[in-house]
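Narrative of accomplishments. A recurring question from our advisory board has been how the design workflow behaves on a single, concrete structure rather than in aggregate. To address it, we present the structure tokens for one chain from the evaluation set, followed by the sequence designed for it. No filtering or post-editing was applied between the two.
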């Protein structure tokens, strides 16, 4: 929870701006300008995505998804008839650098919400700040179970953190299932990047593995030699390895594994599900299993693929949905603020309203203006946000083939996870 007695950066900026501007333009106009809640000026959105760093394989596609959403909203006249202005920042897949850029977006760009971050290790520290700043964060890729309980404001318990990617409690079930049913492992070890995403998912996968867990081994993505890490991981000769990591460091780890002759069958996390990653080490990853969301196809998925100009990169549809949902929430609320987004984003994603999808911002605005409920079914999935502002997804167990593509070997429906997450 946020401390209600702590003044936020946004609150400080409001106070200073109002005090200096009363004699010039009047109180009302100044507050409207600073908060973005009234008037006809632009609505300021941000994004904090991994254009560089360990998740750079995904960053450009995610940024393109946000850009397409902003373009679609503005082509339809924007939320409340106002233009969305988007300021994009590179997280560099680094928590401290992302935090610095977030503070710039709040203090200089006066954002009401942002899309990001990608990794949970970057999103978690941001999510601890947003409620006091009254800024809405919608992550397209952060999946740590920890985030389910972050981003709450005080005293009304409004949740300022949402995500369009599923909670890793789902993926942990799938990783365990792959080890149990496809590898038929009796023993396993888990290797995870040393952050909230890695630790959280590895522990969930361990809970769902039926055999003996020999060890959980963290690693730093900044390490250049992973030999000692792998020596520790393979102590006791595990039948299977659950690997929660990112492509850049993952490539080095798997090359070291192959050269060292360690053995074992690998089950990879969704964060490693990259065609570019597989294509760089096709002989090494051939035959490995991958856990991945496999959401039900929507009309929006096809429309997004066409707008994207080819097969979308992982998490780029989720990024589109994150921005689009924020715009719809603002229009429903009749106010452009982080609190307005937080309090309305779930209601415009539920299946009891008129269905709207990718590129249909004008249709959605018209329905909302007529006081009708809407259900945004997105580019990434049906995006039915629950009370924790996160979706349940259908999942799949994939297997990497010798041409660096993947095939699905098992699909697990959304209904399977109800009551388990």
């Amino acid at each position: 929870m946020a401390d209600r007695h702590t003044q936020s950066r946004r609150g400080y900026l409001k106070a200073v701006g109002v005090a200096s501007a009363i004699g010039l333009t009047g109180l009302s106009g100044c507050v409207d300008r600073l908060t973005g809640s009234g008037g006809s000026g632009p609505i300021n959105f941000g994004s904090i995505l991994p254009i560089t760093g360990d998740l750079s394989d995904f960053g450009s596609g995610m940024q393109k998804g946000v850009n397409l959403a902003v373009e679609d909203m503005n082509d339809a006249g924007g939320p409340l008839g106002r233009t969305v202005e988007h300021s994009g920042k590179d997280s560099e897949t680094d928590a401290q650098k992302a935090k610095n850029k977030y503070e710039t977006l709040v203090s200089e760009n006066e954002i009401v919400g942002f899309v990001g971050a990608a990794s949970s290790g970057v999103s978690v520290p941001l999510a601890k700040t947003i409620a006091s700043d009254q800024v809405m964060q919608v992550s397209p890729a952060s999946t740590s179970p920890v985030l389910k309980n972050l981003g709450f404001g005080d005293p009304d318990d409004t949740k300022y953190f949402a995500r369009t990617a599923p909670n890793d409690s789902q993926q942990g079930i799938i990783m365990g299932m792959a080890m149990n049913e496809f590898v038929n492992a009796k023993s396993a070890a888990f290797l995870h990047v040393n952050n909230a995403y890695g630790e959280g998912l590895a522990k969930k996968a361990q809970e769902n593995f039926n055999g003996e867990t020999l060890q959980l081994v963290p690693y730093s993505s900044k390490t250049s030699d992973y030999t000692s890490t792998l020596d520790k991981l393979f102590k006791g000769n595990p039948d299977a390895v659950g690997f929660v990591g990112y492509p850049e460091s993952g490539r080095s780890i798997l090359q070291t594994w192959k050269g060292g002759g360690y053995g074992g069958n690998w089950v990879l996390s969704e964060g490693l599900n990259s065609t570019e990653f597989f294509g760089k080490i096709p002989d090494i990853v051939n035959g490995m299993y991958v856990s991945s969301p496999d959401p039900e196809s929507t009309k929006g998925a096809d429309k997004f693929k066409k707008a994207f100009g080819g097969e979308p990169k992982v998490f780029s549809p989720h990024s589109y949905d994150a921005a689009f949902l924020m715009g719809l929430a603002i229009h429903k609320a009749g106010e452009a603020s982080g609190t307005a987004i937080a309090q309305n984003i779930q209601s415009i994603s539920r299946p009891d309203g008129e269905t709207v999808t990718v590129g249909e911002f004008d249709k959605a605005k018209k329905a909302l203006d007529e006081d009708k409920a809407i259900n945004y079914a997105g580019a990434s999935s049906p995006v039915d946000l629950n009370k924790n502002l996160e979706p349940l997804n259908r999942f799949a167990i994939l297997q990497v083939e010798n041409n660096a593509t993947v095939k699905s070997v098992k699909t697990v429906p959304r209904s399977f996870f109800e009551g388990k997450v």
